[in-house]
Amino acid sequence: MGITFYKRLFLLPGLLLLIAVIIFPLLFSIRVSMSSWNVSRSGLDFVGGSNWARMFSDADFWSSMLRLLNFAVLTTFVQYVLGFMLALYIWQGVKGGRFFRLVWLVPLMTTPSIMAIVWRSIFREDIGAANGILKMLGLSTIGWSTEVVPAIFTIYVAEIWQWTPFMFLFLLAGLLILPKEPLLAAEIDGASPSRIFWKITFPLMAPISIGAILIRLIESSKIFDSIFVLTSAGPGSATETPTYFLWKRSLAEFQIAYGATLALTYLIVMIILLTIIAKVLTYLARPRGW
Amino acid sequence: MSKTLKYVFLSFWTLFVFVPLSWALTTSFKTPDAVNQGATFIPWVQFEPTVAGWQDILGISGYANLIPNMVNSAIVTFFASLISVSLGGFAAYGLSRFRYGWKYYGNSDIIFFFIAQRILPPVVLAIPFFLLLKGLNLLDTHLGLILVLTSGLMPIVVWLMVDFFNQIPREIDEMAMLEGCNPFQAFRRTILPLSKPGIAISAIFCVIFGWNDLFFSLVLTFTNVKTLPAAVVALNGTVTPFWTLSASAIFSILPLIGFVFIVERYLAKGGFSGAVR
Hints:
The complex is a heterodimer.
Chain A: H1 3-32, H2 50-56, H3 59-92, H4 97-109, H5 112-122, H6 129-136, H7 148-176, H8 181-188, H9 193-204, H10 206-221, H11 225-230, H12 242-252, H13 256-284
Helix pairs in contact in A: 2-13, 3-7, 3-10, 4-7, 5-7, 7-10, 8-9, 10-13, 12-13
Chain B: H1 2-27, H2 32-36, H3 52-57, H4 67-97, H5 107-116, H6 122-135, H7 142-167, H8 170-178, H9 183-194, H10 196-212, H11 215-220, H12 228-237, H13 242-268, H14 273-276
Helix pairs in contact in B: 1-13, 4-7, 4-10, 5-7, 7-10, 8-9, 10-13, 12-13
């Protein structure tokens, strides 16, 4: 049997399974987005681009997009900084490094939707731990679920708790495969630790950092579970992200056609934004003279 | 000075990691009174522990029984991960060693197609998947949920493994083929043993993301195949008290926390290096 047979044998089973599972939802969504399928009438009629026109002028959808941008960029940035610091400490060696490493990986293993239930019980106004601690310290309690900023804060905290270990793991793996020579040479030359970090370690870590940041941007943009459980997008719509907005339109209100339009829009916007972000980050991290 | 600062930071972060888990653990052993009188933290000192919450979720008190849900989660996660790692691994090896193409599209476009699946949030796919599985008579079955989860997990494997295989010198499998192996035998005899760390990492991430899935189980299963997260979130939606909810939360994350102790050495060592290059 020729090489072509084996070539196909390796790729095709996986690729075809993926295409088989994904092609129907995709084509279906495109077709449905041009119909008027909703709770009162189901089926595939043709109404052209009216759903698309509605999407463009749907201020709630676009403000949920802005909210997501804020959320994804901010939590990813915090995770990156914290994850990098933790990874550097383990890499340089600390007492009990193995213990710390093990403990720090635990949040990664917990289920976001389940942890959201735990966070909800922590941020309960009357009997939760957060207000309990504030009371113990003699401070005034906070309306975690009724005030806008605290509600947003709870979502951010849950996200950072859950996913900083991912950044940590990724960046630690990156640090472990760094070439030793430039670092040793700089040390022999007597460069200060902070200078070594900014001039050598950080630039060498740039490609890995970009990969890790992009993955977290992709994954955190899909946030649904913790908002669904923790705040139900409230108070008002202060914590409503596009995925929650989509869920409400398509599965709670059963506006199937409009939901499909929003879904495709989300997909297109994400692909464009991520491509731009990837290009910008790669440009910023391009090798420069020292 | 900076050394003190370092340990302060490390301790602070470690404490932050512990807080939600220890809160859930202590709450799961509280009595209704101990929960409702306000936040308490230390068992035996501030409250008298009881196992009532645990009896509620293990079918002893007749309130709820999460054990079948745990079995469902285990079955679905195991098979979805197994299919994803094997098919994804094969595809990644192919993409690393051969050139595929159709008109202007090449290997990097195929890899992008795999990874692009991760951009899609589950909610986008919920209704089409519902109709698809309904048409195939696979709603509320293990197989249906496994297929759907595989589409989300395989991209992770392809993304991790392509770079991993790229790091293994081509000469190794070329040598095997010169000695008379066909490409498949060359893969199985020489590459597979070398890629154990990469396979371990991929499997770990498949298990994490598979176990964590809430949405597909919420929408595509009803009674027979409800997984643990969906069952616990359903409890959360009813009037289930906090001590029972906390017990169910700890119960659902325990298997994977146990898992971290087994796989930690794979996660922290070179196996990951392929992914980050």
